[in-house]
Amino acid sequence: MVSIGAALFLIGIKLAAGLASGSLAFISEAIHSGTDLVAAVLAFFALRVAARPADREHAYGHGKAEHLSALAEGAVLVAVSIWIAVEAILRIVEGGHEVDAAWWIIAVAVLVIAVDFIRALTLFRAARVHSSAALKGSAIHFASDLAGTTAVLVGLLLVRAGVGNADSVAALFVSVLVLIAAGHLMRENVGVLMDRVPDDDELAAREAVEALGPEIELRRLRMRSAAGRSFADVVIGVPPGEAVGRAHAAADAVEDAIERAVPGADVVVHVEPRDDDDTDIAERVLAAAHAVPHVREVHNVRILHLGPRMEATLHLKLPPGTQLGEASEVAAAVDAAVTRDVPGISRVRTHVEPLEAPGAGHVVDDGAEIEGAVRAVATDACGRPPHDVRLVETAEGVVAFVTLSLGDAVTLEEAHGLGGATRHRIRDEVPGVVDAFVETRP
Fold it and tell me: Which of 160, 276, 404, 423 could serve as 101's disulfide partner, Cβ 3.0–4.6 Å?
């Protein structure tokens, strides 16, 4: 609103001074201020549009309205600068245009310079506070007005000193200033409308993600900006075995890092499993180790990258009675099999463990009292008698094996809940039972 009021005042005073003195430079500055009035009005309405929240048809908001406004301002300025330049050149070539450089005309020029300085400073501050392209565009226009009016003042002083074409030269200088300002404004806003990547923000965002560590792979980063706000579209890769919760936490970490590096950024993160070659190599190591005789179980397979070489570490389980010498021979056979069958693996480190012996136990023959208690608890827990109850004596104590018949209409979720509740109640409420295994069926 300040810039609109200032533009109206300056148009009137410049045009009056230009017509009264015959100064083309002053008339060109009046026209320049007319374009500034248009710019200020466009900026005013563009800001009102840009302030609207996002809706169904404008999911990213209305911020680009500011840049459309600034682009229109630039186009008007180009047309005006060309007209001023042509008229100035004609006056220089043809001559005969008298300019009255009276003292009050010079006083008007000084007043205009003061007004231009105040409004340009006001708009530059507002543009910086609100990160507004529209306000910045208006501020650039008014700064060019300040330089142009200074040129007009110098031209008038030279006219008073007897230099006849000084006013036309000043007008030509004003046209060049307007053209440069318009070119800069249009180039900057076309870049935004064409989604040109904001280089500084893109670099800051990339460095922020890469600083999170090698476990997060930055696959793609696309950025654009509008109305002083940056938008980031990020694709990251995480290890293929990563749980959903940890993958989500990685996405949150990327989002937070970019928002710290680029304040106010709107960030969308897409998570993908990495094309992890180590997973395929580990599976091949596992297969090669299982093919070795006497190997009962292989687990904890890891692939280590040691410079140009790869090594594998794994845990082997052998029968508990295996002598250490024989176990060492099996480990050596696994090493040979893996390095032979898996290209790239230069060495295998094995940790040998005994296979757990199966638990011993026997069916309880005289457990009628315990069985009755188990049946009562199971019936109370699920609302119907169990199909079967079996008691087994183990080293830890009696384990109850219970089968519940729940019918076809019960969902898997309901059956799981009833089975879990029955198990906990049997274990807690039946003396002598250390655990319960509950099976559900239709």
Answer: 160
Q: Are strands 388-394 and 398-405 parallel, antiparallel or unpaired?
A: antiparallel
Over the stretch 216-254, which tens digit does the pLDDT of each residue have? 888 888 887 765 567 888 898 876 555 566 778 888 888
Q: What share of the chain is helix, strand, coil (3-state, %, to 5)?
A: 60, 20, 25
Cα 84 to Cα 96: distance, rounded to the nearest angstrom: 18
Q: Is 35 helix (H, G, I), strand (E, B) or coil?
A: helix
**What per-residue confidence (pLDDT) applies to 39?**
63
The domain defined by 2-193 folds into Alpha-lytic protease prodomain-like (1.20.1510)
Assigned CATH class of 199-273 = alpha beta
Q: What pTM value is reported for the model? A: 0.42
CA-to-CA dists, residue 247 to 237, 271, 282, 302, 430, angstroms:
9, 7, 22, 21, 43
Give the tens place of pLDDT for each residue, 277-312: 566 788 788 888 888 888 888 887 888 888 778 888
Instruction: Please state the CATH superfamily assignment of the domain spanning residues 277-354 in this structure.
Output: Cation efflux protein, cytoplasmic domain (3.30.70.1350)
CB contact at 8 A, 209 and 221:
yes
What residues pair up with 311 in beta bridges, in sequence order?
A: 304, 347
CA distance 151 to 158: 11
- The CATH number of the structural domain formed by 361-441 is 3.30.70.1350
- CA distance linking residue 71 with residue 84, whole number of Å: 20
Q: What does the angle CA 362 – CA 366 – CA 368 come to, to the nearest 5 degrees?
A: 115
What kind and span of H or E run contains 269?
Answer: strand 266-273
